[in-house]
Amino acid sequence: MTRPLNAFIFDLDGVITDTAEYHFLAWKALAEDLGITFTREDNEELKGVSRMDSLEKILELGGRTGDFTAEEKDALADKKNDHYLSLIQNITPADLLPAIKELIADIKAKGLKLGLASASKNAFTVMESLGMKSEFDIIVDAKTVVNGKPHPEVFLHAAEMLGVEPEACIGVEDAAAGVQAIKSAGMFAVAVGPKESFENADIVYASTSELSLEKILEVYNA
């Protein structure tokens, strides 16, 4: 028997496009300003994590957790974001990750709803630059939720805005925290990345180029 399915809810960074490099460069510049060494390996720990939690992780890395007031931390996070925004000015539709445009077209052709659930506060800006904002029914970003991933709030809020039950949604993520959020929301989880990173996912693809609506639906309805 076919399971009810009403919507797909996508993460942004690492799924629709890869702004991870821009985030890394902006965080690295801020860390260096603070005298903290920040590597690509360290950056992996920030995937799917909110801006303020990311800052806390970097301060902890440098042993500087207690050196700043809440206001100073806000200013540091804003400084990072300003740098990041200047870096993403160059994003175009050519920056869509492989097979994403086709997958979204296939989902829309089936009459399914499309939502975006992003930990980024710049999701609207990035989606506009990619030429994808109008393709999605709703966009939920970090500005509209209290709890970041792995808390399920962003996915539950997306389902609510779409007017669908979480159990009838498929979530697509590239971060372990994001997959945990999808599963905690009661949704079917599609992960993109190394299989060993996603024990909780229902299906894992090594890269977006392997994503196929037909294959996802086969597993979903199995």
TrEMBL record:
It is found in: Cytoplasm. It comes from the Bacteria. Keywords: Carbohydrate metabolism, Cytoplasm, Isomerase, Magnesium, Metal-binding, Phosphoprotein. InterPro entries: B-phosphoglucomutase_hydrolase, Beta-PGM, Beta-PGM-like, HAD-like_sf, HAD-SF_hydro_IA, HAD_sf, PGP-like_dom2. It comes from Mesobacillus boroniphilus JCM 21738. The active site is at D11 (nucleophile), D13 (proton donor/acceptor). Substrate binds at residues 11-13, 27, 46-51, 54, 80, 118-122, 149. Mg(2+) binds at D11, D13, E173, D174. The keyword DNA damage does not apply. Binds 2 magnesium ions per subunit. One of its GO terms (biological process) is carbohydrate metabolic process. Its cofactor is Mg(2+). It catalyses: beta-D-glucose 1-phosphate = beta-D-glucose 6-phosphate. Belongs to the HAD-like hydrolase superfamily. CbbY/CbbZ/Gph/YieH family. Its EC number is 5.4.2.6. The record marks S118, K149 as: Important for catalytic activity and assists the phosphoryl transfer reaction to Asp8 by balancing charge and orienting the reacting groups. GO terms for cellular component: cytoplasm. This is Beta-phosphoglucomutase. One of its GO terms (molecular function) is magnesium ion binding.
